[in-house]
Every structure is written in structure tokens, then in C-alpha cells.
Amino acid sequence: MWPPLGAAVADKPDRLAVVDALEAEHAAIDPLLAAIDAAAADPHYGYQWFGDLVDALAGQLTGHLSHEETEGLPLVDASLTPAQWQHYAQVHTERIGGDAPVAMPWLLGRASPQMHQAVLSQLPPPVATAFRQQWEPGYATLKLWDLAPEPVS
Fold it and tell me: What is the pLDDT of residues 27-49, one digit of tens each?
């Protein structure tokens, strides 16, 4: 998304600065993910730095997502054409592929009802129906974040 957005606002330095900052934030996230993977794979010493890396990732990601929501998405809405948005959606749909039944409910799990409806309204009707009737109920049964202990009988 960022290269077409950068091209769309290339003649507006203040908007281009937002795009550049968002790209720099993205660039800082990948090395943290790689370091977390390395720490998790190191059975001897990884535990010593795993927590600090996760904390750093949480801080970086929280800041970046906030920045994306407050400045990035409004800039995208104002600057990209419907065809560019459609291309972005197609590329990411292909990347998600078979993971969509888990990825989509996870992404919308804590979204406001308004955001939930806004996203679903952009999906083709068969996909929105699959989301409502299959993906969301199926995801709920996974209880991925249910950390409450199981009752002991």
C-alpha cells in the first residue's frame, strides 16, 4: 500500500512525511519479529532476552497501529483510487488464502460494531455470508485466548 500512496502524495511534502514515517515504522517491526523467532528457537539463552523483545515489539506495534489509524488510513482514503484499493485487497486476499476463516474473525474480534459492519459490507456477499455463518462461529469455538483454567471434576 505504501508505494502507491507515496506516489499519490509525492507533491505534498507533509503527506509524504506521514507515508515515510509509516514505512519506517514497518521496517522496525520485521527485525523485532525475527529476533523474537531467534530467541524462541534458542533453548539455552533465548529466555534471557525473549521478554524484552516482546515488550519492544508490543510498544513498536502499538505506536505504529495508532499512527496508522489516526494519520495513515485517512490519508489512504483521501489519496488512493478505488482501483488501487481493489488491487491491495486482491493481493492480501491471495496472501491470506486458506487462513481467511481464522484471520478475518481474529482481525474483527474486538472491532466496534460499526467497524465490523463496515468491513463486512466491503466483502462479496458469499464471503460475508461465510464469515457470519461459518468463520466467526468456528473461530469462537477455538477459544484461543480463553486462559481461564478448566474446571476440575
Answer: 999 999 999 999 999 999 989 99
